[in-house]
Write a structure and sequence with these properties.
There is one protein chain. By secondary structure, this protein is of the alpha/beta class. The protein has 2 domains: 43 residues; 203 residues, TIM Barrel (Alpha-Beta Barrel). Helices cover 41% and strands 12% of the residues. Helix 1 packs antiparallel against helix 2, helix 4 runs parallel beside helix 10 and helix 9 packs parallel to helix 10. The termini are far apart.
């Protein structure tokens, strides 16, 4: 069985998490010293939980843990844009996505669901063989992932990590949770496994908006070097027309195949280069450098 990456040195909680711990300790101390003020203590703890919940739902917020949502400054200066694909591999969409990328001389990072990778092992190896990066997108992509405890999240991450390492020939260095949502526990789980959290600076909402032209406008409006784009080769809606509505029939054209050619053309016209995410930034005190999106 492939070995997992060696853990980084250690993880330190963010200032928000440290402040949250102090709020809860103060609430307990308040109840112990003045039991009649339990309502005030409860209100303070509840308000703190709401803040943590809101921060956890924001995919580009570094308040509950470090993340990377833009390429390094040197990459931005070279006009590089990172293409990332989530939820694959998909036997219909992924091979054609690879052909389109090859034709454009583009590279990308594929955040794969372990369960799907196990069903399409040859596709995982093919993605890596063509020079793209295979990264970790959990084992089952359950919407409850963000609300699991550290051990539950760790099992999901580890199971996908082992499989993808064996199929791609290298361990994923990046992790992306479903929909970008995570709990305050995730940063420690990832740090202990040598993984960094990848977010994005631009998304087209291509899983919910079935109109490729609108998705393309979201991705390209103000597009510049350093951006990280999130797309989907898995979970891509099937279309019944060139720019029409979605068709749930398996024979429909995946939206990503309508979207990707004009997107690659737009990059070329602007002198931008499509790349995969680079190796994660060096850990500092067990935490990846936090490059949050500016948009």
């Amino acid at each position: 069985m492939p070995r997992l990456p060696a853990p980084v040195e250690r993880w330190l909680p963010t200032p928000l998490l440290r402040a949250s711990a102090l709020v809860h300790l103060a609430a307990l101390a308040c109840v112990a010293a003045a039991p009649r003020r339990w309502r005030w203590a409860l209100a303070a703890a509840a308000a703190d939980q709401l803040v943590l919940f809101a921060a956890s739902l924001a995919p580009r917020s570094g308040l509950v843990g470090p993340l990377v949502a833009r390429l390094p400054a040197a990459s931005a200066a070279r006009g590089e844009v990172a293409l990332t694909f989530d939820d694959g591999p998909d036997p219909q969409a992924t091979p054609q996505v690879l052909d389109l990328l090859d034709a454009a001389g583009a590279r990308a990072s594929f955040f794969m669901i372990g369960r799907r990778a196990a069903s399409h092992r040859g596709l995982v190896a093919e993605v890596a063989r063509r020079g793209h990066r295979v990264e970790n997108h959990t084992w089952g992509h359950g919407w409850g992932f963000a609300w699991r405890g550290p051990s539950g999240m760790g099992r999901e991450v580890d199971r996908a990590q082992r499989l993808l390492t064996g199929l791609a020939g290298r361990p994923p260095g990046w992790f992306r949770p479903p929909a970008g949502m995570r709990s305050p526990w995730l940063a420690g789980v990832l740090a202990g496994r040598g993984l960094a959290l990848a977010s994005w600076s631009r998304r087209g909402f291509d899983t919910v908006d079935h109109r490729p032209r609108r998705v393309l406008r979201r991705l390209t409006r103000g597009l510049a070097g350093g951006d990280v784009l999130v797309l989907h080769d898995g979970s891509s809606p099937r279309l019944d027309g060139a720019d029409g509505g979605a068709n749930d029939a398996a024979g429909g054209q995946p939206l990503i195949l309508e979207l990707l050619p004009p997107l690659l053309d737009a990059l070329a016209r602007r002198g931008l280069t499509a790349v995969a995410l680079p190796d994660p930034p060096a850990a500092r005190d067990g935490r990846p450098a936090n490059r949050r999106a500016r948009r």
